[in-house]
Amino acid sequence: MTEHKPENISSIPIDGFSHLRITSIWTFLMSVQWSEPWLVGLLVFHAVCLFMTVLTCRFYRVTPLITHIVLLSLCQILCLHLFFCRFFSDFQYFDSKGMFISLVYSIPLLLNAVIIVMVWVYRTFSTMTELKTLQLKRKARREKREKND
């Protein structure tokens, strides 16, 4: 039989703020000090982006424009933050594997993109349904006219 080797606990990172062992995404998120002003600003930014996405879903030409502006501006802000984070952040959040940036920055924007794509697919199907309905009505009127002539 194979013996179960105990996991090397010393290889699991310990958070400097809450002193938790980071073993999952949830403990990673719990280890972030969410009271830092720039993190509060980032959360407010994501809330505003979600609000703008939901608000502009009806206007299919405005949504991509707002999405591009948001992504470009946030990329610039994020690049500046990477260079100057030691001046206004208490902890070094940006790890080499990108866990922090993926969870806190990319996933909320990805959810906004998923919402936009779902709305676009719904609108496309609705437009195609309306088009087919109009085609069938036109065909029925044409056949009715030919039948009467």
From TrEMBL:
The keyword Membrane applies. This is Transmembrane protein 18. Keywords: Membrane, Transmembrane, Transmembrane helix. It comes from Amphilophus citrinellus (Midas cichlid). InterPro entries: TMEM18 (IPR026721). The chain crosses the membrane at residues 38-57, 69-89, 101-122. It holds the Pfam family TMEM18.
